[in-house]
Amino acid sequence: MSRRRRSKGSRRVWKQRRQLARCRNKAHFAELLRWFLPEGELFSKDEFHGNTRWKPEQLAAQGLIWSWQETKHVTDAFDHSREICEELGWKQTTMTYTSFMNALDRYDNVWMRRLRKRCQTLAQEVGGRFFRTGDWVLIGFDGSRATAPRTVSNERAFCAPNYGHGKRAKYGKKKSKGLRRKRNKQHPPHPQAPQAWITMMWHMGLRLPWTWRLGPSHASERDHVKEMLATEEFPENTLFCGDAGFTGYPLWHAIREAGGDFVVRVGSNVNLLSEHADVKKLGGGNVLCWPKGKREAGEPPLRLRLVRVQVGKTKMWMLTSVLDPRQLTRKQLVRVYKMRWGIELEFRGLKQTIDKHQLRCRNSDRLLVELNWSLCGMAVAELLALREQIAAGREEKQHNYEPQDRSLANTMRALRRSMRNLTKYCDQQENLWQELSQAKVQRYKNRTDKRARYRPANPDKKPLGEPRVRKLNVNERETLRIHDHRVAA
Q1: Average pLDDT over residues 152-161
Q2: CA angle, corner 85, sides to 79 and 88, nearest 5?
Q3: Domains plus CATH for the chain?
Q4: What is the C-alpha separation between 340 and 354, in angstroms, rounded?
Q5: Are strands 314-320 and 261-266 parallel, antiparallel or unpaired?
Q6: pLDDT (average), residues 181-210
Q7: I need a labelling partner for 388 at 20 to 30 A (CA). Which of 135, 208, 287, 428 fits?
Q8: pLDDT tens column, 368-416
């Protein structure tokens, strides 16, 4: 009898443990979402329609789950997200795809503003020593496009009205001379494909999306950056880094007005002024950015520092608003510009790993919703992985962890595997937290060069060249002296 009782007791304990193991995956997944979306805090100051049956926190969580799905169609992704919400016990969510998209579209500004701010706050909390690189918070910015379906709504919203008549198009026609005209007679070009423009600000230390703006294919990424600078808050001592496309007095002045500094690669598209020696022969020095229109309008000059650096095998010119070489050395400039390349990998992850190179929605408003939530879902997924990996390194006392070791593909595999197996058996050593802490890239030495053997040349792309620097003339020197006297007074 005692043996039978012990066996019954052991079976009962085994069943309890197995039940806990089944609930462990669901508990971990729900805990991560509650950490990011605390109940009754994030949307407490926002007003929603009085007849809604959903809670904002649960609908935001449903939107994140929807963005993490790997199905081809957005309606199938919604069905899976609704099933996951039912398994988690959330009853105050939307039950139809139409109501779901209408809610996301109607309050799109509310969702994105609150969720981006939440990502920024948690990134600063969990980032630790990676949030600042030296004394700087490094923010890179760049732009990219995502293709949309060829519908009337998308073509009206995203296609450029002057397609084929811009400067680059005219330059390409001039370079190809008559060859392109002959080809076009035999194979006439297709109409322009609608594309959505993405301008992203990216935290270079944590390798996380910081904020972003969307627009049509002919949108200006510099205007997007100026809008983000005017409407969002950035930490103290923020150093913005951009490529050669982010030039011009208005953009640089907006960065300085926002309290930040910048590092930008420059070429022959930039005209600068020098007060004393030939800066280019000396390999760099202090220069002025003071266009004629701004000078005549009484606008102040921008005092900048021009530095010639070598990144890999390429020699290039960098322009920065940090005038003290001890505060931002030449080696630090090279390191910052190399770190900026990670934003290109972020766009690759959005288009390939998240599979948003070709968007699905056929309505222009819903397409922006799809793209906004895809970017937000990617940012939240990487933030969850960063939290677990930093915590695991702290527990194991490993100080060699770097955010660049994090893998977006393995992070998405862990989240999707957890969503598929919410009610299935989960081993204690293979739970969601453990998988996120191990979602890292493989480190191995390549035996061969991984560069493509065939790289097609782009005849429409002009070489960058060197910046144009000239000395101030007599009238400009007098205008500068009067301006400096007024500032000193």
Answers
A1: 93
A2: 145
A3: 17-114+369-437 (no CATH), 129-175+194-350+462-488 (3.90.350)
A4: 21
A5: antiparallel
A6: 84
A7: 135
A8: 999 999 999 999 999 999 999 998 887 766 667 889 999 999 999 999 9
Given CA atoms 157, 163, 166, 172 in this order, what sign does their dihedral have? positive
Q: What is the mean pLDDT of residues 189-217?
A: 93
User: Are 132 and 236 a contacting pair, CB within 8 Å?
Assistant: no
Quick one: pLDDT at residue 383? 97
**Which segments of 311-466 does DSSP mark as H helices, in order?**
330-340, 342-348, 364-395, 408-420, 432-437
Encoded amino acid at 176, one letter: S
Q: What digits encode the pLDDT tens for the residues 302-348? A: 999 999 999 988 899 999 999 999 999 999 999 999 999 999 999 99
- Describe the strand order of the beta sheet including 284-289 as a list of residue ranges: 208-216, 195-203, 137-147, 238-242, 261-266, 314-320, 302-311, 284-289, 271-274, 468-471
Are the C-beta atoms of residues 408 and 349 closer than 8 Å to each other? yes
The encoded tokens of residue 209 equal 């999306």
Residues 6+ apart with CB under 8 A from 308: 280, 283, 284, 315, 316, 317, 318
Residues near 156 by beta carbon (within 8 Å), at least 6 away in sequence = 364
Residue with tokens 């732009």: 143
Q: How many C-beta neighbours within 10 Å does residue 50 have?
A: 5
Question: Residue 153: enclosing H or E segment and its boundaries?
Answer: helix 152-158
Q: Would you say residue 296 has pLDDT above 70?
A: yes
Q: Pick the range with the lowest mean pLDDT from 152-161, 162-171, 311-320.
A: 162-171
> What single-letter amino acid sits at 317?
W
Residue 116 exposure: Cα atoms within 13 Å on the Cβ side: 24
- For every residue of 229-282, which 3-state class applies, written as one string? HHHCCCCCCEEEEECCCCCCHHHHHHHHHCCCEEEEEECCCCEEEECCCCCCCC
* CA atoms within 13 A of residue 371's CA, in its CB half-sphere: 29
pTM of the model: 0.89
Alpha-carbon torsion, ordered 125, 130, 134, 136, to 10 deg: -60
pLDDT at 219 over 60: yes
User: Does the pLDDT at position 7 exceed 70?
Assistant: no
**Given the structure tokens 């370079």, which residue do they identify?**
175
